[in-house]
Structures are given as C-alpha cells and as structure tokens.
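Subject: sequence -> structure tokens, single chain

Hey, anyone have a minute? Need the predicted structure for the following. Not urgent.
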Amino acid sequence: MQTADPDALGFIPNRLSYIPEFINERYIASGKMKNFQLTIGRGDDIALFASGGIAREDGAPLLDDQLFRIASMTKPITSVAFMQLVEQGKVALDDPVHRVLPEFKGLGVYAGGGAQVPFATTPTEAPMRMVDLLRHTSGLTYAFQNRSNIDLAYRDRKIEKWHGNHDLDSFVADLGTLPLEFSPGTAWNYSVSTDVLGAVIQRVSGQTLDAYFADHILAPLGMDDTFFTVPESKLGRLGDCWTWTPKEPVMFDRAEESIWSRPPKLLSGGGGLISTSADYHRFCRMLLGKGSLGDARILGRKTIELMAQNHLPGGRDLADMSIAMFSETQNAGTGFGLGLAVNLDPARSMMPGSAGEFYWGGMYSTAFFVDPVEDLTMVFMTQLQPSNTYPIRRELKTLIYSALA
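Reply:
Had a minute. Here:
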C-alpha cells in the first residue's frame, strides 16, 4: 500500500518506524507469532504499512494483499448492515427480536437443572430487543466460554458449527428452544448475538447475508477481497492459521485444505469473513468518514455517531456488566456501542487513547481501532489463536499514540 510522509501526517518518524521493529523482535524472531501486518492511517492517508514473518508453514513470505481470517472483526460489518436497514425504516433498535424472528418469542431465563432439555426457566424481565443483539446484552452465549450449562447445551448441539446441519434459519430455531443465561439488558456476555443479527438481516432484507454484504457494503467500498468463502483463484493468497501452545504455535487451519475454501452452510455474521489489510482499512476509513468513503455513502453521519456511543444501560462499563469469560476487549473504562467497543475513559483503561475511540478484534489476534479525535485508524492482522495469548493490542496502542507529534 502507498504510504505518505509520516512527518507531514503528524507522526514522529523514528517512533513510528520503531513499531514494526518491536513486533519483529518480540514476536516474529522469537517464534511467538508466525507473521503480522500493520496499517496505521491518518485520515485517508497511510502513515505506516509493515509486514513480517511467513504466511505458510513452508516459509512462503507474507504478501501485501495477504488474505486473513478476521473472525469477530466480521461483527462491525454485520452491525453496519443492520443499521442500514434501520435507516430505511425496516427495523428499529427497540424492536423486540421476536418481531422478525418469531422463534424467539417466549424465551425464558435458565433457572437451574442439568444441561438437557427440558430446562427450568423463569420469564424474562423484558423481551430481547435488537439493541441487545448489537451490544451483547441479549442473554445469549458462546459455546467456547465453558462457563454454564447453557454453554454446554450449545456445544452438545453443535449450534455454532458452520459446516454442520444448520443454516441461519435452523440455527435460530434451535436457539429458540434453549433458555437465556440472563434477562436481556441486565448483563453483558460475549455471544452469538451478532450471528442472530445476521439472521435478522436476511429476513428483513430478503437477501442471503453474503449477498447483502456484497451488494450494500463490500462492492460500494471496493472491498473486493472480503468474503465468507475464498474463491479458488485467490486461494494462493490465503495463509495458514496457528494455535498457541506453551512450546510453539501448532497448525489450526492449513491454507491448502482450509475450511474457508468451502462455502459454509451457516453464514456467520459474528466471525466468518476473510479479508485483507487494505480492505479493512477501507472499512475503517468509512467509519472515520462518518459513513462515507469517496463517492460511496454507506451510512448517515448521525448513524455512525450513534453506533460509537455507549449503549450499556445506565452508562455503565464492561467492568460493571460483563459476566463473560472472554471477549475482545479490556473491561475497565470500556463501554459498548452498536457492534463496537467504545473507549469511555483512557485513564481507567490504563492505555493512551481518546474518549470516543472505538474498536474490536478477532480470535486469531487481529484488531482494529478508529479514533475520530485524532483522525487515526489502525488495522493489525496475524493468524494466531486465542487472541488473549499476548498483550500485543495494548502494546500497539501504546506505541502508536506515543508516535503522535
């Protein structure tokens, strides 16, 4: 990608150039990570683009247009798609979810017992609303949390399996037979909420989720390398993906036989996309541009502003509301908007940043942030799970903000 003069963009050049040196020394040379790609932008310009490491086990170098599994960085794209439908008046944030997904009507809250149906339940204090899906206050969960009997039921039924028995309709139908972990709006739990939101988008729009993304977000933004299934002609640009172990990373998904080379039955709006640094940087520029990029208008200015505000009840933060075992964020000083974490108080997060900055990441250690105050964006790509293995997101934020003049 074409870079501009860092000094002219308000960076201290030697501090900016130190960032890839730091990553290479601490993570690549040490073998902790196999690769990285970092894009730091100011406005529409790129101040730094850097790559390091190998793409595949055979030592193939990382390409500038390398394809990465972005996992939960899919969630903001799904959230933008939903907000487009809100702008069209087809759905509203305070609509009960069961208005579009009647399978969710009458869901109760888990009240004890084993992990098999029938569960003991109590009525919810209020119905699940669309805003609960966007901010993860729905009462749904993730199977991998290994925290409750509801998590266990998700695992037993393989509810989240992309190449299993479920498409989005049967996924919703199966979820509708299970109780919630808590009454919607009363707690925060990282969950399949955004996958459910994908089902809402399909029903309201009348398009499959992949077709809706392509027509209304990806094509208008020129994100030609973002998709649920890697086309055969582009498989050579997909790298391997590794899992951390105490000794060394081990193979998780080999590029030549990747599950992303086969169309999934379940289109995961919560974590299914492949993308590139350049494509996701375009998405970030759209967010920074308050809904527009070039001639493409994806969302209205006030809608982006609404998404980037804290929507947790009572203005609380995740330290107060989260019951999740794992998420892609720090909790202290962090609120949650409509599909995005929001920095409420940099002092409480104990990292440099700006109030109003918003961000998210993915389970393969990818991450992005958008800072409207500083006109700043970052996209970080790598392929190592889980994402909480190393504190690289914290380190990147510290290094990037320290490089601002």
